[in-house]
Amino acid sequence: MSPDPLGFATHDHSTCVQSAMTSARAICAERGVQFTPVRQRSLEILLETHAAMGAYDVLERLSAEGLGSKPPVAYRALSFLVDQGFVHRIERLNAFIACAHPGAAHDPAFMICRACGTVAEAQSAGSSLGASAALSGFQIEQTVIEAEGLCPSCQTGAQA
To answer: Would you call 97 exposed, middle or buried from its count of C-beta atoms within 10 A (0-12, 13-18, 19+)?
Structure first.
């Protein structure tokens, strides 16, 4: 089986999904929070393609599988996944994407390809922002950076 893309790189997708789900189960058990079937399936849906998806796209899949058809079902599951650090919300796209580093404290930066819609997560280089905040007495609690441009595949396609 050939590797699948993760962001702009390739990886072993089945191992990736299995590892993320195992990690999420362990983190939920450690934190004493319920990882219900709807929450699990919502995370699996986002992990299946590593693509950003809207809440209604997730709801459509949940509904087709008999796991709920009302919008609050998807929104509650996605909210839980965001709160636990398993999923990020991409503001620019009004969508959600599975976290590349679930359970780890980090400030993600998202690179969004304007041509194909692929989203890649990277660690933000927010040190200069942190320094500026410190100088003004501001304490940063969370930083999310979203950048739009062209992924390597679309750059190559645009040049052809």
So the answer is: buried
- What does each of the 160 residues of the chain score in pLDDT, given as a tens digit? 333 444 566 656 567 788 889 999 999 999 999 999 999 999 999 998 777 899 999 999 999 999 988 989 999 999 999 999 999 999 889 999 998 877 777 778 888 888 888 888 887 765 677 788 888 999 887 777 888 999 888 888 765 4
Q: How far, in Å, CA of 104 to CA of 78, rounded?
A: 18
Angle at 100 between CA 95 and CA 101, to 5 degrees: 125
Q: What is the C-alpha separation between 62 and 74, in angstroms, rounded? A: 8
Which helix (H) or strand (E) element contains residue 56?
Answer: helix 55-64
Which two tokens mark 46? 């986002």
Q: Of 90, 93, 56, which Cα lies nearest the Cα of 75? A: 56
pTM: 0.80
Q: How far apart are CA 94 and CA 105, in angstroms?
A: 22
Domains and CATH numbers, the chain: 4-98 (1.10.10.10), 108-159 (3.30.1490.190)
Q: Which amino acid is at 9?
A: A
